[in-house]
Amino acid sequence: MTEKNKPLLRILNAINKRNPIHYQIPNVGKFIFNKIVPYIFIYRIPASGKKDKMIADLAKTENASIVCKADSFPLEEWIMPIAENLAQEFGACLLIEVWVAEKPQKHDVMLHIGQKDILPLAQYLERNIRMEALELSVTIEKDMNIPKPDQMPALFGKKYLQNKQILLMGISINDRYHDHEENILPLLMRTFRETLAKSLSRLFFEFLRVYTHLNATAQKINFQQELTPLMNEIDQALAQESKKFDFLLMVTPLNAHEAWLQFKKDKYWKVPKFLYRPMHVDPDLVKRRLYNLRIEDIYDPTMAYIFRDKRSELDSMITMLADRGKEDFLHGSLQVFGNVSEKLYNSALAILMMTEPENMSNKSEEWIGPAEFAKMAREEVRFLQQQNAEFNCPIRIREDISGVMVNRGALNISKEYKLTLNRAKALIQHEVGTHVVTYFNGRMQPLNLFSLGVPGYEELQEGLAVLSEYIVGGLNNNRLRIIAARVIAVQHMLLGNSFTECFTLLVDQFGFRPESAFQIVMRVYRGGGLTKDALYLKGIMELIQYLHEGHNVHLLMMGKIRKDYLPIIKDLLQREILIPPAITPRYLFPEYLEKWKEVKTKASIFKLTH
């Protein structure tokens, strides 16, 4: 081995020993193997010396990449032994070479293939790019020869690749993220980079699964294997801003009980006046701090997406708080919590039509007050502490809330609250077993986001909480009717009906007692119109379908997550950034296994009614 070839030998030895290696050739290029994997991202800087920032940044997101100057380094001489070694080690090797199209091409992204065996991978990548960014156009070009950038030599001859188990795909980019003066258009550049990074991540996973003898799920194939200082900094900053205000407390009336007594005194015709906690944060300052966060500097697209998503939600929520009592509050609620679909409304209506109105004539049930309920909650906390001594849940009886509410792992109970003993057992699983447990499990994660809640977590969280009531035998028809009535109330509010009109509808048409109807309508009209309460029914319906499809319910206990985050959760678990749930609630213990099987079999909210 000559002195000239010693660096290549070092790289080959690292591959054989599966040792990560970084090798830099000054002023020429660098070989980076953060992990020895059977795929390499390649970028040859053209002879003009002009490096494309988007492609160079994209290379930083990959576990294995080669970036070098085309005219200063004979990459074709080095890539052959490297690719051969990887193919021998793993059963196959995939090379992805990316370049800027010299002439403006019709599509934003063109996938070049010269081997039949790689066509399924190209089609898979094409689908993923379309899914990630509808605004980017992509096509597949079948080349007669091995794909390569213009004015550069091919890395391999076509015959050479036939029996080597080496696959090569070219990706040419229409760099319209530069304007006519070659200035960068940052938002468009980010769209290209993040779309390609996510799509290539899935492509490499699919390649491992189909083309190699590796167990793909055991491979840590994505981006950074640990949180970078910048990620931790942004996570802490988002958590800090989130903790400065409690959204639900800020939109919950301070005088709910007094408002009910006055409403009753006024014979249910005068709209009650609700009082709210004073606004103690400046929305403009919060937003300034949020948008000063350097999320655009995070190259890992998964983490960048999570942080950007949370920032957007906090922005919308702080705007809603500033708009309490105004028409714009409802517009913000539709942004954050969504609308009522026709299917959801019809399902709610069907539940109310097929069940009898609540019957309060049964005096045999044992009723309890806030002190007894708090005692039951403390007993449940002690039960859960057997799994982890750090588990805790402050329990407070308060004058300034209505009903019960979990706030950052603390259970708050209204001093006016009363319920039946059977209902209390179910509500303990709803509040402590779901809301508090997922908060604690989220706190055990290295990212604050999973305890505070990812954007839109409420649907899955409330669906799981309501389903837990059914699992322990406490989801009766009265409870289902309340959940359905909340959907009806949200829809009627959105149609422009007043508080009193909606109250009258629930009492006269659906047979609700006045106090129950008031509580339902108050929750929906608070703040100026909160659509969140429609998520309970939507959440449990989505969750029943999720279980029917055979998915794992234990994964939902990771923290406060939403359903479409599950691929992200699995990705972060695989990369060992997240850890499995620390606490399992009572309703997931083996004694309730038959109940879970029952839910999967029934596969319908209507079959849960009595």
From TrEMBL:
Which Pfam families did the record assign?
A: MATCAP (PF08014)
The record's section on InterPro entries has: MATCAP
Mind listing the UniProt keywords for this protein, alphabetically?
Hydrolase, Metalloprotease, Protease
Highest taxon, organism lineage = Bacteria
The coenzyme or cofactor needed here is: Zn(2+)
Classification via SMART domains: DUF1704 (SM01154)
Name of the protein in its database record = Flavohemoglobin expression-modulating QEGLA motif protein
